[in-house]
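Blinded run. Sample ID left blank on purpose so nobody reads anything into the name before looking at the predicted structure. Input follows.
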Amino acid sequence: MNKTIIPQKRMKHSKFKNTGILFELLTKQVTADIIAGQTSSKASTILHKFFNKNTEMGKEWQLYNSLLNEKIKSEQLAERYYSTIVDIRKKLNNNQLALEKYELIKEIKDTYPIEQMLKSPVKNYKMLASIYKLFENVVSNDLKFEINEIYQAKNMLVEHLTNKPVIIKEDDQLLNYYKSQTEDIRLLTYKLLAEKLNEKYSSVLDDEQKGILKEYICNVSNTNKFDEFVKSHIATIKSKLSESIKNITDSDVIKIKIKEVINQLDRINPAKAIKDNHVTVLMLSYELLKEVNSQIKHKGLLK
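Blinded prediction complete.
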């Protein structure tokens, strides 16, 4: 009698279990706490507790970080580098790692609305998901993910490792140096960013732009609220720009700019989540409105 073979159910990528994503979300939360004026951040305490050189999560995060930031000249060398990282990953204590992740999630849930935190956009999400799949696959005797998923993840990683580094502007070199350092230095960088943002742009950005930046940085704790915030500003800025066209008589260039920006704002679908490029459009819209008001005031473009 032939036995019926039941296909094994494969795993799905989980943000709860992805060490890289958990680290990124916590560092964003540190920034949100600082912007909110908190003298001490619980997220910072959690980071230091779980992501240090003596924890399995800290060790695994260093492997994630190495794959994210290393650049290799050829695919052959990239394959060797990946194999080296995988060999190190195999030596981690998986039982201890699972326990630490369980305790980390519990502490986050006790302090923050974790479901909202997990909805926050994560830089390098696809790469972090690929690394997670590859790591989970190599430490198991069973195939946890579909073969094509593993294949695509491996290809994405090799392509990432062999990409030529982006040319860094001189002003950004120090920041990028900090970003390549340990979690302690990275947390310091986030704090400096928050302070420098207010110091550098306080005389340049208007109240609307400052409000957008503040909400954008803090949206990790309430994504839905941020979406509503942006959508309300879209309606406001569209109305102001449309009204400003009526006051311009001899500058076709500015009129074209206004119409194009309004067109970009119309492309933002209110039914979908707000993305980074939507925020950029909104910031540029307010910048254009400042330009229009300046032109009207100083160059006599009023009817």
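Unblinding after everyone has recorded impressions. The chain has two domains: 19-171, 205-298.
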